[in-house]
Amino acid sequence: MTTVSRSVRLRTVLGWPVGIAAVSWRYMWRTIPLHRSEEAGTRADLPGRVYGTSGFADRLQPLDAGVGPMLHRSYGVRIAGTSMAPSALIDLVSARLNQASPEMAVFRKTRGAQGSLRQGDEFVVRMPGPWDGPVRVVRRDEASFRLATLAGHLEAGEIEFRAKPDGDALHFEIESWARAGDRLSALLYNKLRLAKEIQLNMWSHFCIRTARLAGGRPQGGITIRTRWVPWD
Question: Is residue 48 part of a domain?
Fold first, then answer.
């Protein structure tokens, strides 16, 4: 590890307590309502495959590699007061991930050109705790992009970010399909529910910040749906 990468990592680690405190403070004093629902899911909740297996699936940590049930979650927001097209919003979010992401999660590109997001690019997401979150872009189209977890991630699965028209507004949504990456992660997610709530806090803030990037405002709150899918 170079001196530069050490200093970047040190700044990231030192920034975690500040980031968690800031996000937690905003969570406690949030005025934007969260509409939450949880229900049992089925195998129909599984994601469709968006990438081939020839050469591209190396180091991926797919759902089959996880532990415990799969959580199929979505976080949606209606963004009013913006003239931005869905494709322009996704271009902006993909280029400014750290402006959309709360302070507790920092995206560091490890593969691919800076300032753009293409299929095959890789990131490490620095988060509180002993885990880094390596991910790869497995799909990028006009109005969406999808990340898949790589070996060593806290989770096993995929997450997609997309936008579409919603009348005179925009609808932005984050959809994830994930299982715990190992038994300790399963304890934090499925027993203590700690990581699950941190994840909800993170992605709901991502939706709020995306609305600001679009030059608009969240209308009607954030809708969060969770479906628990048993895994044999």
Answer: no
Token readout for 32 is 């934007």
Range of the domain at 176: 3-43+57-229
In a domain, 52, yes or no: no
pLDDT in tens, the chain (232 residues): 445 444 544 444 444 444 454 555 555 446 788 999 999 999 999 998 877 655 567 889 999 999 999 999 999 999 999 999 999 999 999 999 999 998 778 899 999 998 889 999 999 988 765 556 899 999 999 999 999 999 988 889 999 999 999 999 999 999 999 998 777 776 666 665 666 777 788 899 999 999 999 999 999 999 999 999 998 7
Number of continuous H segments (helices) and E segments (strands) in the chain = 5, 9
How many domains does the chain contain in total? 1
Dihedral angle over CA of 54, 60, 63, 68, nearest 10:
150
- pTM for the model stands at 0.84
